[in-house]
Amino acid sequence: MKFRLFRSLQYTFLLTLVLASCHINAQSLSDLQQLQQQAQQAQSGQGANTQTTNSNTSVGSVTAFELNSSRTIQSMNNGEGSTGQYYNSSRGGQVLPGEPTIDTVYPAQAPMENPPYAANLFIGGFESERADGLNDNYLVAQGDKISIWMWGAVNYSDVVTVDNQGNIFIPNIGPIQIANTPAGSVNSTVTSKIKQVYTNDVNVYVNLLTSTPVSVYISGPVLRPGQYAGQASDSILYFLKRAGGIDFQRGSFRQIDIKRDGKIIATADLYEFMRNGELPGISFKDGDVLMVRPLGATVVVQTGARNSFTFEFKDGELSGDTLTKYATPRDFINHVSVAGVRNNQQFSRYLKLNEFNEFSLNAGDTVEFVDDHEQLVYRINIQGSHTGPSQVMVDKGTRLRDVLNYIRINPELSDVDNIYLLRDSVALKQKEIIERSLQQLERSVFTAPISSSGEGAIRAQEAQLVSDFITRAREVEPLGKVVVSENQQVANVLLEPNDTVVVPAVTDLVQVGGEVMLPQAIVFNPDATAADYIAWAGGFTQRADDERILIVRKNGIVEFDSIDGYNFSAREGNAKLKPGDQVIVLPAIDMKSLQAIKDITQIVYQIAVAANVALD
């Protein structure tokens, strides 16, 4: 029985030897069987050797101390974490499987259009940026390490720890009270105590080596309440940022209490820090609690201020004067709009700024600062052929002829008989007219009835073509041209802010464009007609509409001419042209393929008149 046990142990030892010497990781049944065979062969060879040699001095024998025990564990070399592996460093925000996150435990909230004032205090990662060294204002606490050197008549060197009573102990000196001493005064405090015993020939150097971390609890409406470690000299902002910042919807920025042993020792107001840089100057201790109080009364400033935020007010602060100091209205603000609820009814007021300063606000009010000055002076632009300034400031009620008297021109180069205006309000109105026509066209195409599948296919192709046309038409920006001159007479119209007076230059050219073979400028010929100019431009393209040719006069007046067919010998197109006129040939639309031909043709004419372009 003992022999069998010995043979079993020997077999196990040889199997281990083979595994260690071959560095093989058995991962399947076939691998195990192969290793077993190698062990049996080694056992047979060992048995043969023992018959010819002494077992104590056998050649090739291996002791347990010579076994190669190095192992490569893949789960530790591949750089990836595995279940059950221990980490001695921070997870860096990595969430474990099944661990709660803010998304799972915190109610989802819509983004605020006007975030709280001072909310940008919690932007960035300043809580992870700490300067090396100790703050001179740091107060020594229990557990801090202090290095002491004495040389001269007495030699002594040691690192002492501040005990629970706030003392350090030096042989032959005794205890020295050092707790709550500023770091910058540690050397002088300890030296003075030592000099009381060793009065002569002793030099002393004392240095605070480390500061003891403190554990601070953060509670109330913050994103991640809990316990956080830091230095005693860290600020309130540091610990609040560690906790994710104050909850904008629930937490107060005006009342953050610091509690120690159940008593409030200081209160922080972040508004005062933003405006005046004031924070409570305290040194934290273990067990201190930062308590963020619930959100107080709020007023939203929407527009017109440099600080358009949601402002929180303490009791007795709900006044227009306080809000004005925090919001800082922009320049030229003279009125304030207030909307809210009073006595369960809608409430609104429109006040002058000086009246608003004495106005009493309520929680939930919405305030807008308004620049409501009457515009008594505005700018008029001058473009074209002139020699004076390009802008003129005029009083309200000024008319065109009053401005023309101040425009310097060269009579030989400026065509003052064909002056016209460009007006923003007219361009906007033209844009609205074109947009309404495009919307009507969309409705007529996409809501047309279909009687058969063949007609449906045709309508689908037609709808695609119309959609492409509408897309291009919406990109056209009207000029807002206003015709003010005709027959050497200029209408004395009332000017509007930002009007542009265009003085055309004297020219000898006629512009020909649109659906012609060679769009170009042609020298004016007093005997030529529109048909002649089109012929000089290469004639019509295959898509040209020869029945309605657009003539845009130099002063902005629009006329239509027509040429029946491509035979110019009939002397059609007899509109009398003048230098500076534009001849625009509009594209023809195939009436067989589109049923919305009337609407499209109308829109093409509107665009051509409003923007002087031919859109096909």
From TrEMBL:
Question: Where does the signal peptide begin and end?
Answer: 1-26
Question: What name does this protein carry?
Answer: Polysaccharide export protein
Top-level taxon of origin? Bacteria
Which residue stretches belong to region Disordered? 73-93
**Which GO-annotated molecular functions does the record name?**
polysaccharide transmembrane transporter activity
The Polar residues compositionally biased stretches are: 73-92
Domain annotation Soluble ligand binding: ranges: 510-556
Q: Which UniProt keywords apply?
A: Signal
Q: Sorted alphabetically, which Pfam families does this protein's record hold?
A: Poly_export, SLBB
Span of domain Polysaccharide export protein N-terminal: 135-208
Q: What organism is listed for this UniProt entry? A: Salinimonas sediminis
Q: Cross-referenced PANTHER family, in alphabetical order?
A: POLYSACCHARIDE EXPORT PROTEIN GFCE-RELATED (PTHR33619:SF3)
Its ancestry begins with: Bacteria, Pseudomonadati, Pseudomonadota, Gammaproteobacteria, Alteromonadales
Q: Say yes or no: keyword Lipid metabolism present.
A: no
